[in-house]
Amino acid sequence: MGELSMKIKMITRAAAVASVLALSGIAATAQAATLEDVKAAGQLKCGINTGLPGFAFTDDKGKWAGFDVAYCRALAAAVLGDADKVKYVNLTGKNRFPALASGEVDILSRNTTWTFSRDLDLGFTFLGVSYYDGQGFLGRTSLGVKSAKQLDGASVCIQTGTTTELNLADFFRVNKIKYEPVPIETNEEARKAYEAERCDVYTTDASGLAATRSTFTKPSDHMVFPEIISKEPLGPLVRQGDDRWADIGRWVLFVLINAEELGVTQANVDEMAKGTNNPEINRMLGTEGSLAAMIGLDKSWAINAIKAGGNYGEIFEKYLGKDTPLAIARGLNAQWNNGGLIYAPPMR
Q: What's the number of CA atoms in the CB half-sphere (13 Å) around residue 172?
């Protein structure tokens, strides 16, 4: 009877394991079908900011535009052949990760920092760095403060659900000074709270500070302090478990970066697609090789991505560069061969 009981238990356990494996297989199959889901829906669901000048904002026609939005358009163009086939989902710092994890969005392109815990604990795959940033402080010149290290006892507006909360606590602790946090949900709320003098200073990524400062009636009355207190490598991300979708999102970003390095622009991409003396350009644009077959997209996928809004440099200058209200210098976001960190693997 004991032996029979043991056999029954072994059979039961084997059945349970088989059941788990079967369920895991179903889950993996379902999770690995993002590309098919996007094609079936005929649109890309892209998570973006609730509103941040330069990165995600509505233009004078009420359409979403910006640095992060341009990536969504490039991805939709590569996958669906049409940059306009995007459903934009506005997400706060707090609800962006649940929205991606639940499948409410197919990809998140929302000035999000690549960190250890987000990569491993939350189970997301970052596709690369699209913008190298760092956390700073914005304050009124009337405070008479020249350095963030002089902010002892200051009230600080800070977005909840972001890496800036921990960075802020670490900075004040290291410098042995105190602060009063004023938590807010969105950049727009932070701007209003700061303007209403609910806080002395506002902290977020330096790019966000430049965006906020550009909206003030008198930007010169406000200054960004010299301290950059963190590394904030920003980039798009997807759910783990769908390598094919991650590869597509990653290489669309790399195409935009490589296109700038190779001199391929929105204006000349069609002409270059006819063939050039540079084999890497030819491979990228489908004149030579079989990269399209490897990635499983139409032969013109890279051409469409570049035509959607231009190469990386064109997108940067259009939304963030010196001729925009933000007037952000390329700095670390210049190409690797021009003093910056922007770099993409070769197209071969």
A: 18
Q: pLDDT averaged over consecutive 10-residue blocks of the chain (348 residues)? A: 40 36 37 88 97 94 97 98 98 95 97 94 96 96 93 93 89 96 88 93 93 91 93 97 97 98 98 97 97 97 98 98 94 97 96
Is residue 182 a contact partner of residue 176, using CB atoms and an 8 Å limit?
no
End-to-end Cα, the chain, rounded Å? 65
Distance CA(129)–CA(112), nearest Å, equals 10
- The pTM score is 0.85
Other Cβ atoms within 10 Å of 220 Cβ, number = 8
Residue 193: C-alpha distances to residues 156, 158, 174, 293 (Å) = 10, 10, 27, 51
Using only C-alpha atoms, the chain has a radius of gyration, in whole angstroms, of 23
Could you tell me the CA-to-CA distances from 174 to 154, 164, 206, 264 in Å, in that order? 16, 15, 20, 46
User: H or E element: which one contains 44?
Assistant: strand 44-49
